[in-house]
Amino acid sequence: MSAQILDGKATAAAIKSELATRVEALKSRGVTPGLGTVLVGDDVASQKYVAGKHRDCAQVGISSIQRELPGTATQEEIEDVVRELNADPGCTGYIVQLPLPKGIDTNRVLELMDPAKDADGLHPTNLGRLVLGEPAPLPCTPNGIIELLRRHGVEIAGAEVVVVGRGITVGRPLPLLLTRRSENATVTQCHTGTRDLGAQLRRADIVVAAAGVPHLIKPEYVKPGAAVLDVGVSRDESGKIVGDVHPGVAEVAGWVAPNPGGVGPMTRAMLLSNVVEAAERNAG
Ligand SMILES: Nc1nc(=O)c2c([nH]1)NC[C@@H]1CN(c3ccc(C(=O)N[C@@H](CCC(=O)O)C(=O)O)cc3)C=[N+]21
């Protein structure tokens, strides 16, 4: 028996069509949401991601603001672009595509962003608001994971969730979202220092693999029927994406989020959602 698919591509398409309706309503009130991207350097993967985000914007009716700087850009030049987008009334929200080139102080750039325009939900002020339970734009990948589970009817309340990874974009913030009263999951956070990963994973109703270690999650670690979401993006010699979840897991799990086609498209949909929400908030 093979697992059912948590279809991120189809779910993201449904969310985008809902967002398009909300954008139309905003436009009839004279407001057009705008998403800005700041891309520094010529990393091919980053260029592809950013291009994808602007394609998404076009589908939903959000206007795109693209800023590109060469890999030789200085700290001051990057910060000037951030200040410019902070001041631009046409820019509802924006992201600084990560990673930034070596030698750039990334945290200094991110802290300079206007938290109200933080489409990633990763500004220190907004992460702080998440801890405090105050309204704020939510981190896109964790929010996308919850939305993907919810829209497939996977029960989160009362579930034992094991999150593998402690990165800033997924592993660290995801447990904060899952343990809110509105989600009510019980969460264990594992990482490369976890003594017996298999023992932790075998208890899990939901596994989120965000460690960036190819095929870390083996079939024998997975409880039959569990939901397993693969957020790992490593690449093999030919440049193909290799996830954190071993392909054999699909024979044991009840649900799997494939990679690609699972969490990635949801991340992009939640980015658009943060921009539309910010525009609605501004419109009053
Ligand atoms: N400030 C910032 N915010 C980010 O959100 C951010 C970032 N920097 N830097 C890089 C990572 C990576 N990331 C992805 C989002 C979607 C897919 C995605 O949609 N992937 C497709 C496939 C894409 C392919 O085949 O290459 C999928 O999973 O089906 C992938 C990767 C966002 N990131």
UniProtKB/TrEMBL annotation:
Its EC number is 1.5.1.5, 3.5.4.9. Gene3D superfamilies: Leucine Dehydrogenase, chain A, domain 1, NAD(P)-binding Rossmann-like Domain. HAMAP family: THF_DHG_CYH. Pathway: One-carbon metabolism; tetrahydrofolate interconversion. Residues 139-282 form the Tetrahydrofolate dehydrogenase/cyclohydrolase NAD(P)-binding domain. Keywords: Amino-acid biosynthesis, Histidine biosynthesis, Hydrolase, Methionine biosynthesis, Multifunctional enzyme, NADP, One-carbon metabolism, Oxidoreductase, Purine biosynthesis. GO terms for biological process: L-histidine biosynthetic process; methionine biosynthetic process; purine nucleotide biosynthetic process; tetrahydrofolate interconversion. One of its GO terms (molecular function) is methenyltetrahydrofolate cyclohydrolase activity. It comes from the Bacteria. GO terms for cellular component: cytosol. SUPFAM superfamilies: Aminoacid dehydrogenase-like, N-terminal domain, NAD(P)-binding Rossmann-fold domains. It catalyses: (6R)-5,10-methenyltetrahydrofolate + H2O = (6R)-10-formyltetrahydrofolate + H(+); (6R)-5,10-methylene-5,6,7,8-tetrahydrofolate + NADP(+) = (6R)-5,10-methenyltetrahydrofolate + NADPH. InterPro entries: Aminoacid_DH-like_N_sf, NAD(P)-bd_dom_sf, THF_DH/CycHdrlase, THF_DH/CycHdrlase_cat_dom, THF_DH/CycHdrlase_NAD-bd_dom. Catalyzes the oxidation of 5,10-methylenetetrahydrofolate to 5,10-methenyltetrahydrofolate and then the hydrolysis of 5,10-methenyltetrahydrofolate to 10-formyltetrahydrofolate. Homodimer. NADP(+) binds at G165, R166, G167, V233. This is Bifunctional protein FolD. PANTHER family: C-1-TETRAHYDROFOLATE SYNTHASE, CYTOPLASMIC, C-1-TETRAHYDROFOLATE SYNTHASE, CYTOPLASMIC-RELATED. Belongs to the tetrahydrofolate dehydrogenase/cyclohydrolase family. Residues 6-120 form the Tetrahydrofolate dehydrogenase/cyclohydrolase catalytic domain.
